[in-house]
């Protein structure tokens, strides 16, 4: 692994794993309040992730476009991509608050049949929801900074914000150091403050870089939204599947949905670890293609696949060995621990597959081949993941049925991206 690749991957790794690490702390802190609070936080964070990550193009699309400009020697144009993405983030964030805040109780009741859990989850979501615009601004900031290969600032901004949130979570949930004991709402307040600080820091850097050039540029925004269309459809297919999985798991009981979300959060943590290498590939492949250095683009693609697969095999081994120990970090509820055993082994099997899939996703995103990724993901979701989720409910397959769907989904994506990269069409 070259020094430049390692530096970019390391920066992306810190930025990507910091939020799930914080979420794991959040789950561990709230889990001590009881099973209902744990389940409410699990579902609340799922919905918050869904409504915010529908706009992941603010990070991934902006990275691809900024990297091309940067590779072609146009840094100011790369920064301008961040300005226009930030306008989109502000408008979209306000719209999400306007829709989700009043409908939070209905959303949670649709996902969770237990009234106490649904009510607590809605209360948490209504507080945390006000951080969405700043979450989206941080995505846009990450996007253009990655594009111009600035490794340090995103690490500092994300770490500072989430470190503050981590301290506030412990203090406010349990009422330490003279603070009021807020319980589950204290988790939402901590989340809001920490994410808000991170967003403000990203905006401050963009203001300094842009030299006052903040006027909306409609042609650039339209071009971003064309790429966004495919990325949003791709992201939506993920989220529809995961919402369906949570809804079906909830029908099997509170312990089942809590166990499902616990293992799913670990899966997302692993995915983000692997995504750090994919993002480095996206940055370097995008810049190489912007400079028309096709041989370098291929070399970066190979480096990403080898590095990601090696990391994935190591992670799979760690989670296989830790099957009895790792879940106890988050809860001591015996029913949740017993239920988590089933999806745990699916997780172990899927990780090496994900090592290859995520790396090649990064290569294709760097090449701007988002239309292909959209189609491949939609087909995998509609023909593999979703049918097995709902069949699990009909035939009472439990969490094994739900996670079988996720495994089939990953295998379908593996076949698609390997074929696409081997075809060489991404270079064009």
Automatic annotation (TrEMBL):
Keywords: Membrane, Transmembrane, Transmembrane helix. Belongs to the multi antimicrobial extrusion (MATE) (TC 2.A.66.1) family. This is MATE family efflux transporter Mmp. The chain crosses the membrane at residues 12-33, 39-61, 82-104, 124-143, 155-176, 188-207, 231-254, 266-289, 309-330, 342-364, 376-395, 401-421. It is found in: Membrane. The keyword Transmembrane helix applies. InterPro entries: DinF-like, MATE_fam. It comes from Gordonia alkaliphila. The keyword Transmembrane helix applies. The lineage of its organism: Bacteria, Bacillati, Actinomycetota, Actinomycetes, Mycobacteriales. Pfam families: MatE. It is a multi-pass membrane protein.
């Amino acid at each position: 692994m070259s020094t430049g690749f390692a530096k970019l991957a390391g920066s992306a790794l810190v930025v990507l794993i910091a939020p799930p690490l914080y979420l794991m702390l959040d789950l561990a802190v709230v889990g001590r309040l009881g099973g209902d609070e744990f389940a409410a936080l699990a579902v609340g964070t799922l919905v918050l992730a869904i409504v915010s990550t529908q706009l992941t193009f603010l990070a991934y699309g902006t990275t691809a476009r900024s990297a091309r400009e940067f590779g072609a020697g146009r840094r100011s144009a790369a920064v301008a991509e961040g300005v226009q993405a930030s306008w989109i983030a502000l408008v979209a964030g306000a719209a999400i608050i306007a829709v989700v805040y009043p409908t939070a109780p209905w959303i949670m009741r649709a996902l969770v049949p237990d009234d106490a859990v649904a009510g607590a989850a809605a209360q948490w979501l209504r507080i945390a929801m006000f951080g969405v615009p700043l979450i989206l601004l941080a995505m846009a900031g990450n996007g253009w900074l990655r594009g111009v290969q600035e490794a340090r600032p995103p690490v500092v901004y994300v770490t500072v914000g989430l470190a503050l949130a981590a301290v506030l979570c412990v203090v406010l949930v349990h009422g330490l150091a003279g603070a009021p004991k807020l319980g589950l709402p204290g988790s939402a307040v901590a989340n809001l403050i920490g994410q808000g600080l991170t967003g403000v820091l990203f905006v401050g850097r963009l203001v300094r870089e842009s030299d006052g050039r903040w006027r909306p540029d409609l042609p650039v925004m339209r071009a971003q939204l064309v790429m966004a269309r495919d990325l949003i459809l791709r992201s939506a297919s993920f989220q529809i599947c995961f919402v369906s999985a949570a809804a079906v798991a909830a029908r099997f009981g509170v312990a089942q949905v809590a166990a499902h979300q616990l293992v799913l959060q670990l899966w997302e943590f692993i995915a983000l670890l692997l995504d750090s290498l994919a993002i480095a590939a996206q940055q370097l492949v995008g810049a190489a293609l912007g400079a028309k250095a096709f041989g370098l683009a291929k070399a970066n693609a190979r480096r990403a696949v080898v590095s990601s697969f090696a990391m994935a095999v190591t992670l799979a081994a760690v989670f296989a060995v830790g099957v009895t120990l790792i879940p106890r970090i988050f809860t001591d509820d015996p029913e949740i621990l017993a239920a988590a055993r089933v999806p745990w082994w699916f997780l172990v099997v899927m990780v090496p597959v994900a090592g290859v899939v995520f790396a090649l996703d990064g290569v294709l995103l760097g090449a701007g081949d988002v239309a292909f990724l959209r189609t491949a993901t939609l087909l995998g979701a509609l023909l593999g993941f979703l049918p097995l989720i709902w069949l699990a409910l009909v035939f009472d397959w439990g969490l094994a049925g739900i996670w079988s769907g996720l495994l089939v989904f990953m295998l379908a994506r593996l076949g698609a991206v390997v074929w696409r990269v081997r075809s060489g069409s991404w270079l064009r």
